[in-house]
Amino acid sequence: MFNNLGWGEISALFVIALIVFGPERLPKVAADAGRMIRQLKKMATGLTDDIKAELGPEIGDLDLASLHPKRFVQNALAADDDEPTANGAPLLGNQPAAAPRGGPPLRAGEPAPYDFDAT
User: Fold this and answer.
1) CA 26 and chain centroid, separation
2) CA nearest 84: which of 106, 103, 100, 69?
């Protein structure tokens, strides 16, 4: 949950919370926050269970996390060892990758050219 926070940031947040809520109310606020997070996780789990139950037994083993767009792109990019298509471009998932653009390869340390069409 706190993958991007280091000990310095966590301690700064604790000091700010201590100043804002005070030492008397801080334990109650922390307990309420923990209870709320547990309740949200329980609600999310219940929602996924309800969705799977509504979809029926034929789709009951569907992994809903794999349908997240970020995970979908990661899975597509991880498939770099697929068989090439007829034009020689590798498959990404079920669709062929775009054919590589022409031009000489870059030398070591040379920056990539700016693509005005991509922005």
Assistant:
1) 32
2) 100
| pTM for the structure as a whole | 0.43
Tens digits of pLDDT across the chain (119 residues): 567 788 899 899 889 999 999 989 999 999 999 999 999 999 999 988 888 788 777 776 767 677 788 887 887 777 654 555 555 555 555 555 555 566 778 888 888 777 777 76
Distance CA 65, CA 21 (A): 37
End-to-end CA distance of the chain: 32
107's tokens: 């030398």
